[in-house]
Amino acid sequence: MNYNRRLKLLWWATAGCGSRSNNGVFTNLGDETMWYNSVDNVFHNIRLERISHTHTQGIPPGCEDYKIICLIRNPYTRSVSHYIDLVHQDSNLKFEDFITKGRTGFDRYWDQWKAIGRDPDYIIRLENPIEDWKKVSEASQIIGKNEFDALLERVFEVNNYAHSKPLDKYDSNGHQIVNRFFTQEFADILYKEEKFIFDLGGYKKDSWK
Question: 162-166, long-range: CB within 8 Å, 24+ apart, which pairs?
Answer without folding.
Answer: 165/84, 165/85, 165/87, 165/88, 166/88
